Automatic annotation (TrEMBL):
Main location: periplasm
Protein name per the record: ABC transporter substrate-binding protein
Annotated Pfam families: NMT1_2
Organism placement in taxonomy: Bacteria, Bacillati, Bacillota, Bacilli, Lactobacillales
Organism: Periweissella cryptocerci
Keyword annotations of the record: Signal
Length: 337
Protein backbone atom coordinates (compact mmCIF):
# COMPACT_ATOMS: atom_id res chain seq x y z
CA UNK A 1 0.00 0.00 0.00
CA UNK A 2 1.17 3.49 -0.75
CA UNK A 3 3.31 5.02 2.00
CA UNK A 4 2.71 8.57 3.20
CA UNK A 5 5.27 10.42 5.27
CA UNK A 6 4.29 11.17 8.84
CA UNK A 7 4.85 14.84 8.12
CA UNK A 8 1.61 14.92 6.20
CA UNK A 9 -0.24 14.73 9.50
CA UNK A 10 1.63 17.74 10.84
CA UNK A 11 0.91 19.71 7.69
CA UNK A 12 -2.73 18.82 8.00
CA UNK A 13 -3.02 20.54 11.34
CA UNK A 14 -2.07 23.83 9.71
CA UNK A 15 -4.42 23.19 6.82
CA UNK A 16 -7.38 22.74 9.13
CA UNK A 17 -6.75 26.06 10.84
CA UNK A 18 -6.74 27.87 7.53
CA UNK A 19 -9.51 25.95 5.83
CA UNK A 20 -12.99 27.36 5.83
CA UNK A 21 -16.02 28.06 3.80
CA UNK A 22 -16.86 31.73 3.31
CA UNK A 23 -16.40 34.48 5.90
CA UNK A 24 -15.07 33.93 9.41
CA UNK A 25 -17.68 36.11 11.11
CA UNK A 26 -21.32 35.28 11.74
CA UNK A 27 -22.88 38.63 10.91
CA UNK A 28 -25.81 38.91 8.57
CA UNK A 29 -24.93 39.65 4.94
CA UNK A 30 -26.79 41.20 2.05
CA UNK A 31 -27.36 39.47 -1.25
CA UNK A 32 -29.07 41.72 -3.77
CA UNK A 33 -32.11 43.25 -2.09
CA UNK A 34 -32.45 40.45 0.43
CA UNK A 35 -30.74 40.40 3.78
CA UNK A 36 -29.45 36.91 4.52
CA UNK A 37 -28.80 35.59 7.98
CA UNK A 38 -25.64 33.57 8.43
CA UNK A 39 -25.60 30.15 10.04
CA UNK A 40 -22.02 29.39 11.01
CA UNK A 41 -21.14 25.90 12.25
CA UNK A 42 -18.06 24.76 14.12
CA UNK A 43 -17.05 21.36 12.77
CA UNK A 44 -14.40 18.69 13.09
CA UNK A 45 -12.68 17.34 9.97
CA UNK A 46 -15.12 14.87 8.44
CA UNK A 47 -16.55 13.81 5.09
CA UNK A 48 -19.89 14.47 6.80
CA UNK A 49 -19.27 18.15 6.04
CA UNK A 50 -19.65 17.61 2.28
CA UNK A 51 -23.38 18.52 2.04
CA UNK A 52 -22.63 21.79 3.83
CA UNK A 53 -19.77 22.54 1.46
CA UNK A 54 -21.92 21.77 -1.58
CA UNK A 55 -24.78 23.89 -0.24
CA UNK A 56 -22.45 26.87 0.26
CA UNK A 57 -20.37 26.47 -2.90
CA UNK A 58 -23.32 25.78 -5.21
CA UNK A 59 -25.42 28.64 -3.81
CA UNK A 60 -28.12 26.33 -2.47
CA UNK A 61 -27.94 28.14 0.85
CA UNK A 62 -28.74 31.53 -0.64
CA UNK A 63 -31.58 30.03 -2.66
CA UNK A 64 -33.11 29.13 0.70
CA UNK A 65 -32.54 32.50 2.35
CA UNK A 66 -29.44 31.72 4.41
CA UNK A 67 -25.67 31.95 4.19
CA UNK A 68 -23.92 28.79 5.42
CA UNK A 69 -20.39 28.99 6.78
CA UNK A 70 -18.27 26.29 8.38
CA UNK A 71 -15.32 26.75 10.70
CA UNK A 72 -13.13 23.63 11.00
CA UNK A 73 -11.27 22.76 14.20
CA UNK A 74 -8.58 20.15 14.80
CA UNK A 75 -9.79 19.23 18.29
CA UNK A 76 -13.19 19.03 19.96
CA UNK A 77 -11.81 21.16 22.80
CA UNK A 78 -11.10 24.05 20.42
CA UNK A 79 -14.49 23.65 18.72
CA UNK A 80 -16.32 23.68 22.04
CA UNK A 81 -14.38 26.72 23.28
CA UNK A 82 -15.43 28.65 20.17
CA UNK A 83 -19.03 27.52 20.65
CA UNK A 84 -19.11 28.58 24.29
CA UNK A 85 -17.58 31.94 23.35
CA UNK A 86 -20.26 32.55 20.72
CA UNK A 87 -17.80 32.56 17.82
CA UNK A 88 -19.95 30.04 15.94
CA UNK A 89 -23.73 29.79 15.87
CA UNK A 90 -23.85 26.03 16.28
CA UNK A 91 -21.78 22.88 16.11
CA UNK A 92 -21.65 19.46 14.58
CA UNK A 93 -20.90 17.53 17.74
CA UNK A 94 -22.02 14.51 19.71
CA UNK A 95 -24.41 13.75 22.55
CA UNK A 96 -21.69 13.50 25.21
CA UNK A 97 -20.48 16.99 24.31
CA UNK A 98 -24.14 18.08 24.51
CA UNK A 99 -24.31 16.77 28.08
CA UNK A 100 -21.18 18.76 28.93
CA UNK A 101 -22.61 21.93 27.35
CA UNK A 102 -25.77 21.54 29.42
CA UNK A 103 -23.89 20.83 32.64
CA UNK A 104 -21.81 23.95 31.99
CA UNK A 105 -24.91 26.14 31.85
CA UNK A 106 -25.52 26.37 28.12
CA UNK A 107 -29.07 25.81 26.88
CA UNK A 108 -28.33 23.84 23.71
CA UNK A 109 -30.98 22.18 21.59
CA UNK A 110 -30.52 19.36 19.09
CA UNK A 111 -31.90 20.31 15.69
CA UNK A 112 -30.87 17.06 13.95
CA UNK A 113 -28.53 14.14 13.88
CA UNK A 114 -25.74 13.80 11.35
CA UNK A 115 -24.36 10.62 9.86
CA UNK A 116 -20.68 10.68 10.75
CA UNK A 117 -18.59 7.82 12.09
CA UNK A 118 -15.65 7.04 14.33
CA UNK A 119 -13.45 4.12 13.28
CA UNK A 120 -11.15 2.05 15.45
CA UNK A 121 -7.96 1.97 13.39
CA UNK A 122 -5.26 -0.57 14.25
CA UNK A 123 -1.52 -0.53 13.69
CA UNK A 124 -0.73 -2.45 10.53
CA UNK A 125 2.59 -3.70 11.90
CA UNK A 126 4.67 -2.50 8.94
CA UNK A 127 7.62 -0.12 9.14
CA UNK A 128 7.06 3.48 8.10
CA UNK A 129 9.15 6.62 7.63
CA UNK A 130 8.56 9.27 10.28
CA UNK A 131 8.59 13.01 9.56
CA UNK A 132 12.41 12.99 9.69
CA UNK A 133 12.72 10.10 7.24
CA UNK A 134 13.68 7.57 9.94
CA UNK A 135 12.14 4.10 9.67
CA UNK A 136 9.91 3.27 12.64
CA UNK A 137 8.94 -0.28 13.61
CA UNK A 138 5.30 -0.53 14.63
CA UNK A 139 3.47 -2.90 16.93
CA UNK A 140 1.06 -4.83 14.71
CA UNK A 141 -0.64 -8.04 15.74
CA UNK A 142 -4.13 -6.54 15.87
CA UNK A 143 -6.63 -8.01 13.44
CA UNK A 144 -9.80 -7.61 15.49
CA UNK A 145 -10.97 -5.56 18.44
CA UNK A 146 -10.50 -8.56 20.75
CA UNK A 147 -6.78 -8.49 19.92
CA UNK A 148 -6.57 -5.17 21.79
CA UNK A 149 -6.93 -6.76 25.22
CA UNK A 150 -4.12 -5.42 27.41
CA UNK A 151 -2.94 -3.02 24.69
CA UNK A 152 -3.03 0.76 24.28
CA UNK A 153 -5.73 2.63 22.37
CA UNK A 154 -5.43 6.36 21.64
CA UNK A 155 -8.67 8.27 22.22
CA UNK A 156 -9.92 11.61 23.52
CA UNK A 157 -11.34 11.09 27.00
CA UNK A 158 -14.54 12.50 28.51
CA UNK A 159 -16.34 12.91 25.21
CA UNK A 160 -17.95 11.22 22.27
CA UNK A 161 -14.74 9.42 21.28
CA UNK A 162 -14.48 7.65 24.64
CA UNK A 163 -18.21 6.85 24.61
CA UNK A 164 -17.91 5.34 21.12
CA UNK A 165 -14.85 3.34 22.18
CA UNK A 166 -16.64 1.90 25.21
CA UNK A 167 -19.63 0.97 23.04
CA UNK A 168 -17.42 -0.77 20.46
CA UNK A 169 -15.68 -2.71 23.23
CA UNK A 170 -19.02 -3.69 24.75
CA UNK A 171 -20.32 -4.90 21.39
CA UNK A 172 -17.32 -7.25 21.29
CA UNK A 173 -17.96 -8.50 24.83
CA UNK A 174 -15.12 -6.43 26.29
CA UNK A 175 -14.86 -3.93 29.14
CA UNK A 176 -13.19 -0.53 29.26
CA UNK A 177 -10.62 -1.96 31.68
CA UNK A 178 -9.54 -4.53 29.07
CA UNK A 179 -7.52 -1.86 27.23
CA UNK A 180 -5.23 1.02 28.17
CA UNK A 181 -6.79 4.26 26.98
CA UNK A 182 -4.38 7.10 26.18
CA UNK A 183 -5.90 10.59 26.17
CA UNK A 184 -4.84 12.59 23.07
CA UNK A 185 -7.50 15.20 22.13
CA UNK A 186 -6.01 16.62 18.85
CA UNK A 187 -6.98 14.29 16.02
CA UNK A 188 -3.77 14.75 13.93
CA UNK A 189 -1.66 13.83 16.95
CA UNK A 190 -3.58 10.57 17.41
CA UNK A 191 -2.64 9.36 13.95
CA UNK A 192 0.93 10.64 14.33
CA UNK A 193 1.36 8.63 17.53
CA UNK A 194 -0.21 5.54 15.98
CA UNK A 195 2.14 5.81 13.01
CA UNK A 196 5.06 6.14 15.44
CA UNK A 197 4.26 2.83 17.12
CA UNK A 198 3.18 4.44 20.41
CA UNK A 199 -0.06 2.42 20.61
CA UNK A 200 -1.83 -0.49 18.98
CA UNK A 201 -4.90 1.43 17.81
CA UNK A 202 -6.60 4.82 17.73
CA UNK A 203 -10.17 6.03 17.30
CA UNK A 204 -10.32 8.42 14.34
CA UNK A 205 -12.74 10.26 12.03
CA UNK A 206 -12.15 10.99 8.37
CA UNK A 207 -9.93 12.14 6.74
CA UNK A 208 -7.55 10.50 9.21
CA UNK A 209 -9.03 7.06 8.58
CA UNK A 210 -8.06 7.25 4.91
CA UNK A 211 -4.67 8.71 5.82
CA UNK A 212 -4.05 5.86 8.24
CA UNK A 213 -5.02 3.26 5.65
CA UNK A 214 -2.56 4.85 3.23
CA UNK A 215 0.11 4.37 5.90
CA UNK A 216 -0.69 0.67 6.29
CA UNK A 217 -3.22 0.89 9.12
CA UNK A 218 -6.54 -0.96 8.93
CA UNK A 219 -10.03 -0.47 10.34
CA UNK A 220 -11.09 -3.14 12.84
CA UNK A 221 -14.38 -1.63 14.05
CA UNK A 222 -16.58 1.45 13.70
CA UNK A 223 -19.63 3.16 15.16
CA UNK A 224 -21.40 2.43 11.89
CA UNK A 225 -20.74 -1.30 12.23
CA UNK A 226 -22.24 -1.46 15.73
CA UNK A 227 -25.21 0.77 14.82
CA UNK A 228 -24.19 3.72 17.00
CA UNK A 229 -24.92 7.25 15.81
CA UNK A 230 -24.30 9.77 18.61
CA UNK A 231 -23.69 12.71 16.28
CA UNK A 232 -25.78 15.88 16.36
CA UNK A 233 -26.13 19.42 15.12
CA UNK A 234 -26.87 21.72 18.03
CA UNK A 235 -27.61 25.41 18.54
CA UNK A 236 -28.24 27.50 21.66
CA UNK A 237 -31.97 27.96 22.24
CA UNK A 238 -31.61 31.73 21.88
CA UNK A 239 -29.93 31.30 18.48
CA UNK A 240 -32.77 29.07 17.29
CA UNK A 241 -35.25 31.77 18.31
CA UNK A 242 -33.25 34.52 16.62
CA UNK A 243 -32.49 32.57 13.44
CA UNK A 244 -35.46 30.23 13.09
CA UNK A 245 -36.07 30.92 9.40
CA UNK A 246 -32.35 30.76 8.61
CA UNK A 247 -31.98 27.38 10.34
CA UNK A 248 -34.99 26.06 8.44
CA UNK A 249 -33.38 27.31 5.22
CA UNK A 250 -30.14 25.66 6.31
CA UNK A 251 -31.84 22.26 6.41
CA UNK A 252 -33.62 22.79 3.11
CA UNK A 253 -30.28 23.62 1.50
CA UNK A 254 -28.67 20.64 3.23
CA UNK A 255 -31.24 18.21 1.80
CA UNK A 256 -30.91 19.73 -1.67
CA UNK A 257 -27.15 19.27 -1.45
CA UNK A 258 -27.66 15.63 -0.40
CA UNK A 259 -29.87 15.07 -3.45
CA UNK A 260 -27.25 16.64 -5.69
CA UNK A 261 -24.41 14.54 -4.25
CA UNK A 262 -26.39 11.31 -4.47
CA UNK A 263 -27.44 12.02 -8.06
CA UNK A 264 -23.88 12.90 -9.12
CA UNK A 265 -21.72 10.46 -7.14
CA UNK A 266 -21.14 8.27 -10.21
CA UNK A 267 -20.21 11.22 -12.43
CA UNK A 268 -16.38 11.46 -12.56
CA UNK A 269 -16.39 15.24 -13.05
CA UNK A 270 -18.72 15.83 -10.11
CA UNK A 271 -16.81 13.38 -7.92
CA UNK A 272 -13.59 15.24 -8.72
CA UNK A 273 -15.26 18.49 -7.69
CA UNK A 274 -16.50 17.03 -4.40
CA UNK A 275 -13.08 15.57 -3.66
CA UNK A 276 -11.50 18.97 -4.29
CA UNK A 277 -13.91 20.54 -1.79
CA UNK A 278 -12.91 18.00 0.85
CA UNK A 279 -9.20 18.51 0.19
CA UNK A 280 -9.57 22.28 0.47
CA UNK A 281 -11.97 22.49 3.39
CA UNK A 282 -11.73 19.26 5.38
CA UNK A 283 -8.02 18.53 5.29
CA UNK A 284 -7.52 15.49 3.09
CA UNK A 285 -3.93 15.56 1.74
CA UNK A 286 -3.99 16.29 -1.99
CA UNK A 287 -1.98 13.13 -2.70
CA UNK A 288 -4.90 11.07 -1.34
CA UNK A 289 -7.51 12.79 -3.50
CA UNK A 290 -8.33 9.70 -5.54
CA UNK A 291 -8.82 7.62 -2.38
CA UNK A 292 -11.63 9.81 -1.08
CA UNK A 293 -14.92 7.92 -1.14
CA UNK A 294 -18.08 9.82 -1.99
CA UNK A 295 -20.70 7.75 -0.22
CA UNK A 296 -24.45 8.08 -0.46
CA UNK A 297 -25.75 10.59 2.07
CA UNK A 298 -29.08 10.33 3.90
CA UNK A 299 -31.22 13.44 4.23
CA UNK A 300 -31.25 15.28 7.52
CA UNK A 301 -33.23 13.62 10.31
CA UNK A 302 -33.71 13.96 14.05
CA UNK A 303 -31.78 11.82 16.51
CA UNK A 304 -33.75 9.25 18.48
CA UNK A 305 -34.68 9.93 22.09
CA UNK A 306 -33.13 6.59 23.07
CA UNK A 307 -29.73 7.56 21.64
CA UNK A 308 -29.78 10.74 23.72
CA UNK A 309 -30.96 9.06 26.92
CA UNK A 310 -28.36 6.27 26.60
CA UNK A 311 -25.57 8.80 26.11
CA UNK A 312 -26.77 10.95 29.02
CA UNK A 313 -26.81 7.87 31.25
CA UNK A 314 -23.16 7.15 30.38
CA UNK A 315 -22.23 10.81 30.92
CA UNK A 316 -23.78 10.64 34.40
CA UNK A 317 -21.79 7.49 35.19
CA UNK A 318 -18.62 9.43 34.33
CA UNK A 319 -19.60 12.48 36.38
CA UNK A 320 -19.84 14.61 33.25
CA UNK A 321 -23.56 15.27 33.72
CA UNK A 322 -25.21 15.86 37.09
CA UNK A 323 -28.42 17.49 35.90
CA UNK A 324 -31.48 15.30 35.49
CA UNK A 325 -31.92 15.76 31.74
CA UNK A 326 -33.91 13.67 29.30
CA UNK A 327 -34.14 13.74 25.52
CA UNK A 328 -37.33 15.81 25.63
CA UNK A 329 -35.40 18.59 27.37
CA UNK A 330 -32.91 19.04 24.53
CA UNK A 331 -34.75 18.15 21.30
CA UNK A 332 -35.71 21.10 19.09
CA UNK A 333 -38.72 21.12 16.79
CA UNK A 334 -37.44 24.02 14.68
CA UNK A 335 -37.34 21.75 11.62
CA UNK A 336 -38.39 18.25 12.66
CA UNK A 337 -41.72 18.12 14.51
Amino acid sequence: MKKILGGVVVALAATLVLAGCGNTNSKDTKSGDNKLQTVKLGVMPSTDNLPLLVAANEGLDKQNGVKIEIEPFKSAKDRDAAFQAGKVDGVISDVIALAIYEQGGMDVKVTSTTHDQFDLVADGGTSISDKNGKMVDRIGGVNSIKDLKGKSVIIAKNGGIEYATVKMLAAAGMKESDVKMLDVPPVPARLELLNSGKASAAVLPEPFITMGEADGQHVIDSTTKIGLNPFIIGFPAKTISAKKAAIQGFYKAYDQAVNQINNNRNDPKQVAKYRAMLVKNVGFPAKLTNKIKIDKFPKASQISAKDIDDAFSWAKSKGLLKKNLKAKDVLSDVYFK
